[in-house]
Specification:
Blueprint: E1 3-11, E2 16-24, E3 27-32, E4 42-45, E5 50-53, E6 55-60, E7 65-66, E8 69-70, H1 75-84, E9 87-94, H2 102-113, E10 120-126, H3 134-143, E11 148-152, H4 163-176, E12 179-183, H5 187-199, H6 208-211, H7 214-231, E13 234-237, H8 243-254, E14 259-264, H9 265-269, H10 295-305, E15 311-313, H11 345-355, H12 361-375, E16 393-397, E17 402-403, E18 422-423, E19 426-432, E20 435-439, E21 442-443
Helix pairs in contact: 7-8
The structure holds N-(aminocarbonyl)-beta-alanine (URP) and zinc ion (2 copies).
């Protein structure tokens, strides 16, 4: 059935105007004033609301075997939560461990999403080792349309790679026109500092941050940038959390290194005091890189406002407090790292950015949608509102006022990292390729309708 979205204020990364949007099948076919629709067209009145392009989360772990357990969501629950929060596309980290075969891992990760996700998805392919089988496997994966890799400089002996492997991965990525995303923390330093703190009897969640201090992330970022410079590959630092790492990335960029920066919503909203909450409550806020001292939040918001930080993702990696985070009672190094956020990213960025006057509304759309589409080969199919683009749209009610809570969230996890926080807006209607997936703020879509997005390499 065709769909007409009427009377909304269209907001993209570079334009703002009032118009109606007409959708046939899965695509936007007309944009204009007072559009007429044939009988049988479903009409959504967006009067008094914004219409944004579907938001894109470039960093998600819906399926993640990690630290002796599994992240709590499935693609079914994560995608429904994403949609309720305005995210219509996400990029899942495909993370087989060093012990697993890359092609088998890739097939496994695809099978977890296919037929289960309600929104569209793609993958960053993690390279956890580089041996004689790796290059042929990665070539095959790129041919399948997964045109970004992921490397972990952290998580020694599990997901992390050494310098030789990093060099070979980046060299291949340059040849194939693939962008490489990187978790930048020095694995050896983290491991040594963890051992030292534990030996001193410092074993609570509040010691997670001191075990991976800002300098360790800055070193990882500088290290990655140095390898990018040497290989000429294009890179993307994921979940950058602090000012020293930001300086390392921007200094490299000023030297011509092809490096882009992602921050994630927990690092913009929460500081390290959350991880210091008494009674093991702090475990809810353990992620890597860790939540930082408050002064870093201002540096991140400033860099985001100026476009130095390209994108805002979530690093959605949910673990229940009960039974999962609790695995690390008495030893913070055993607390599964990660936080749930896929449902809340857009509303938090809008509220504490746009609504509270810290972020221009076009930069908000750019950081939460358009820039990721451009960097990862999805633009203009995704990330904008234009004739010919996929009809992924978010009708957003800026008049909504509410608070976030585990009691009302869709994410399948037993706590909210943002419990009690106010939000100043919320999606009312969300479409995925022309079909309504969220109506009146509730998921009404089809689980399993989400499509794997094949992307092309970029040789520039
Ligand atoms: O703490 C985190 N970030 N957990 C998920 C895995 C990762 O490093 O992205
Ligand atoms: Zn990471
Ligand atoms: Zn991650």
């Amino acid at each position: 059935m065709p769909l007409l979205i009427k009377n909304g204020e269209i907001l993209t990364a570079d334009s703002r105007y009032r118009a109606d949007i007409y959708i046939e099948d899965e695509t936007i076919t007309r944009i204009g004033k007072n559009l007429e629709a044939p009988p049988g067209t479903e009409v959504v009145d967006a009067g008094g609301q914004y219409v944004f392009p579907g938001f894109i989360d470039p960093h998600v772990h819906a399926y993640l075997p990690f630290m002796g357990t599994f992240s709590k969501d499935t693609h079914a629950t994560a995608s429904q939560a994403a949609l309720v929060g305005g995210t219509t596309t996400y990029i899942e980290m495909c993370c087989p461990s060093r012990a697993e075969d890359a092609l088998e891992g890739y097939a496994l990760w695809k099978s977890k999403a296919e037929g289960h996700s309600a929104c569209d998805y793609s993958f960053h392919m993690s390279v956890a080792k580089f041996d004689d089988q790796t290059a042929p496997a990665l070539r095959e994966i790129v041919l399948d349309g997964t045109t970004s890799f992921k490397v972990f400089l952290a998580y020694k002996n599990f997901l992390g790679i050494d310098d030789e492997e990093l060099f070979r991965t980046l060299t291949l990525a340059k040849e194939l026109g693939v962008i490489v995303t990187a978790h930048c923390e020095n694995a050896e330093l983290v491991s040594r500092l963890q051992q030292r703190l534990l030996a001193e009897g410092k074993n609570g969640p509040e010691w997670h941050e001191p075990s991976r201090p800002e300098a360790v992330e800055a070193e990882g970022t500088y290290h990655f940038a140095t390898f990018l410079a040497a290989t000429g590959a294009r890179g993307y630092v994921v979940h950058l959390s602090c000012e020293p790492a930001l300086r390392a990335a921007l200094e490299a960029k000023s030297r011509g290194v092809r490096i882009h920066i992602e921050s994630v919503i927990p690092h913009l909203i929460l500081d390290k005091a959350y991880a210091e909450r008494p009674g093991f409550e702090g475990a809810k806020y353990v992620m890597s890189p860790p939540l930082r001292e408050k002064r870093n939040l201002q540096a991140l918001w400033d860099a985001l406002a100026h476009g130095f930080i390209d994108t805002v993702g979530t690093d959605h990696a949910p673990f229940d407090f009960q039974g999962q985070k609790e695995m690390g009672r008495g030893d913070f190094t055993k607390i599964p790292n990660g936080m749930p956020a896929i449902e809340d990213r857009v509303n938090l960025l809008y509220t504490y950015g746009v609504s509270r006057g810290h972020l221009d509304i076009h930069r908000f759309v750019d950081a939460a949608s358009t820039r990721a589409a451009m960097l990862f080969g999805l633009f203009p199919r995704k990330g904008t509102i234009a004739v010919g683009s996929d009809a992924d749209l978010v009708v957003y009610d800026p008049g909504y006022r509410g608070t976030l809570s585990a009691k009302t969230q869709v994410m399948n996890v037993d706590y909210s990292a943002f419990e009690g926080m106010e939000i100043d807006g919320k999606p009312s209607t969300v479409t995925v390729r022309g079909k309504i997936a969220v109506r009146d703020g509730r998921f009404v879509g089809d689980s399993g309708r989400g499509r794997f997005l094949r992307r092309e390499p970029t040789h520039s």
